[in-house]
Amino acid sequence: MLNVSPQPANEVRPDAGSTAFLEIENLVKAYPKPQGGHSIVLDHINLTLGEQEFVTIVGHSGCGKSTLLRLVAGLEPITQGSIRLEGQPIRKPGSDRMMVFQQYCLLPWLTVRQNIRLAVDEVFESLPGARKAELVNAHLEMVNLVAAAEKYPDQLSGGMKQRVGIARALAVRPKILLMDEPFGALDALTRSKLQQQVLRIWESQRQAVMMITHDIDEAIYMSDRIVLMTNGPEATIGEILHVPFPHPRDRMAIRHDPAYQQLHAAALDFLLHRFDRDD
Ligand SMILES: Nc1ncnc2c1ncn2[C@@H]1O[C@H](COP(=O)(O)OP(=O)(O)OP(=O)(O)O)[C@@H](O)[C@H]1O
After folding, report:
1. Of 147, 162, 188, 269, which has the maximum CB count within 10 A?
2. 65 Cβ below 6 A of ligand 1
3. pLDDT for 31-59, tens place per residue?
């Protein structure tokens, strides 16, 4: 039987074959309280990601998952500790770290093509126009949106909007893709199709991904490691589950593997028994 036993949370290693790429070390994030003092949201987070690794972050609502992603994106200052990408401390946002949000954040007055082109224009300012157009076309194709390229966001379904968001993020060739519940607003069927589509893209062009999800099946299907966070305040990494299935993955085939059931049970046990939460 495959080993899915959790790694101790503070001995986090990238997968074999990957180099240490993103390093989060003793990361603390605190926010000031209105009545004075601080509330610590994230407490001593240690995590290392390989440059081709797909990691999911799972934890109860409010534990600080989005905060962690925003810190990696450089959207907020860290309180203590460090985050380094290829050895360089992250201090501000950059096109090497692109975010995809649950709510699609497309500009409604621009077409699908223009939404993607805008990002390409901003990041590859000096690239010839024809080359930028090629990049946009390649990414429209990647997410099967060529036929919808001249449509506006309000003419698209939720799944199509999210595909635009993903194409826009990938078109600027980030070193790491940060996804905050990217399928959270979609119906089950669209969600399942888009999970598969994103996984196929990732399998063909491997890059570092950090993705937040509340869905254990999604985490097992898509990621190499599942980072389970303890409850907030002062949340930290409680456990990390290694997903042993090689890529490309077949959703139905892995579901029948005993290791799948074991992983599922381990994640549920963590969330429901060891770090339960009454909302
Ligand atoms: N700018 C801020 N100022 C003060 N507190 C904040 C700020 N941003 C987030 N928090 C607090 O940090 C905690 C973690 O929030 P965060 O959104 O990161 O959690 P989450 O795990 O992503 O939640 P969910 O799963 O519901 O999206 C919450 O208690 C939240 O109220």
Report:
1. 162
2. yes
3. 999 988 999 999 999 999 999 999 999 99
